[in-house]
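Entry 14. Ran structure prediction on the chain below.
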Amino acid sequence: MALAIAQFVMVLDQSAMNVSISALVADFDTTVTTIQAVITFYCLVMAMFMLTGGKVGDIIGRRKAFVVGLIIYACGSAVTALAPTVAVLTLGWSVLEGVGAALVLPAMVALIAGNFEGASRKVAYAVIGGVAGAGIAVGPILGGWATTEYSWRIIFAGEVLLVGLILVMTPKVADAGRDGPAPRLDIVGTFLSAAGLGLVVLGVLQSSTWGWVKPTEDSPVTPFGFSLTVFVIGSGAALLWAFTAWQGHRVSSDHDPLVHLALLTIAPLRSGLIGLFSQNLILMGVFFTIPLYLQLVIGLDALETGLAMLPVSITMFLASAAGSRLSGRYSIRSIVRTGLATTTIATVMLLATIDPELDSSSFAWSMAVLGVGMGLIASQLGNVVQSSVDASGRGEAGGLQFTGQQLGSSLGVALIGAIVLSGLTTAFVSNISSDQRISDTVAEQVGVAVGSGVDFVSADQVATAAREAGLDEPTTEALVDDYEAAQLQSLKAGLLAAAFLALLSAAFTKDLPHEALESRNKQRANDATVDSPT
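Output, structure tokens:
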């Protein structure tokens, strides 16, 4: 119960707050871009420090790391619930909760392995996976209800109470054993990995503001005439290369590395990590895009948005639950490839539903199909990663697993969000420049005003801004029409990118297990019989 509730808390606010983006924008008088950055930073902090959190658990003990992480997480939830500004929201949600989760999640995986054995361990992992799916399913509805009826802050206040309940039950959880002496923390490796990942994601996140290669007016500096984005991402990549070299040096000099990168030479594990990264990148990118459509284009409130997104949560939960049974009859590779194909089909179906008027039935079917695809993928890859290593490597494999997941989540929000926001600016400027109802003078003025980027707002806000600028009613109507068309074009661009990424991910599935679980178990039993002494 303690570990299951902890898993529920870890996924709750991430899924709940996707439907509350417009409420956060209104409460803090900020922009969608800013909230995008806060969500991205939350996932990024977890990705940056997940390996370190796993190593801290090896040093101080998994249960102690679990408790410390929960306390930090609860403090972050309390700060977020009371946050008066975006800066305080970022401190509580992105930083404190992110650091707490980076301690809790690797420790939780190790505690499951330490408290259960054999068939019970498999059941425990299945329960934890089911609870994670339940959190994803309940989150949008709970977040939508709380935001519409009361406030999004209730979600974070409730997390504080749930953490208190977990801490009361934690003494019942036995600590996970450790072989050999406690390792030492690799401080240099921690800095290099965190800084490298942080710079890569920051560059992608800011690309819609700075420009990808050609700089915009908002690019703070333009080295050699290029956007700062190129150099920030390049610096991050250089630090990650230095991290790999440093880890090799630590191993060769008989010092404890932050992570044994030799694990990545295990083909199924590497393929599983890429799959988890891709799954979270696509899912979080879509979950960032769809609420923009439902709330700022269609005009739904948070609760209505949660209800509209409910099909994806339900089918993802059901497909995840069915995945363990399917793996007994079909190979993991076949199931994952089926999930990716289904996800691609679902995103294309969603593309067809992005219209000025919501076709509720078509949208619901599209979201349901997306959930099936995501659920099939999620049901297989965690087990692939953990079963690819022996007991001594599961802690580090778990750290890599959660790092891949959260890095995918942060890049999903950053990348798909950047595509949507930059596409909105490009399409809006193109539409007004070719609109015969808008004079060349007004088109030029609007083009200059939005040249550095336009935020994703409702059409009513665009109309209000145009009237305040002194434009006549026909011109205002033309601008609103062009903006609404640009909204739909940019949202479709984001979903099209998600579909392309799902197809691209299929190229990395060749090293996944290609035999059904029952066949592999029979083969192992036969091998054991042949090898046993008579």
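The radius of gyration is 24 Å. Will compare against last week's run tomorrow.
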